[in-house]
Amino acid sequence: MLVFSNNSLLFIYYLLSLPSISKLFENDCDIWHNKAMKRVYDSKNVEKYVNRYHIHDYFNSSYPFYLMEYEKDEMMIHPLKDTKEIQFVVEGEVSIYFIDSNGKQLFVSQTNELCVLGDVEFVRHEKPVYFAQTNTKVVTIALSIEENQLRLNQDLKFLHFLLNSLVDKLHN
């Protein structure tokens, strides 16, 4: 079994994100699948987090939230995989990276609780350009983009929240 360091894995992700190479491995490469990530649909547990972090305050109506749990050093978001959820980080720490055209890993930011992931991808409808990797065990409140896209695009409270989230990311 091959074991890669985090930097090596990020570089492999970068190489595989190049269009000519990614097509070769699109269906066969297992590097980018989260083995330990799990979705939790237990309504009491979900509601506990939603209430604790006032997630309903960001929306005009209610949505079918669920939890996503990640182990330490898992890739949450990367350029080879469509981002399928908007995620509110409610426990743990996440590092955001970028890999430039020379393959150099550039640290962008480190986030703690109530950071939003998937907001840029929700707006742009493209694969992400950044990597989000867990530094600790992480729990997020998640919402499926695909299942809720139409409603979210008409939810003014959510769109205003999203605008603030994106502006905050530009200023940090």
Automatic annotation (TrEMBL):
Q: What's the superkingdom here?
A: Bacteria
SUPFAM superfamilies found in the cross-reference section: cAMP-binding domain-like
The protein's name is Uncharacterized protein
To which species is this protein native?
Holdemanella biformis
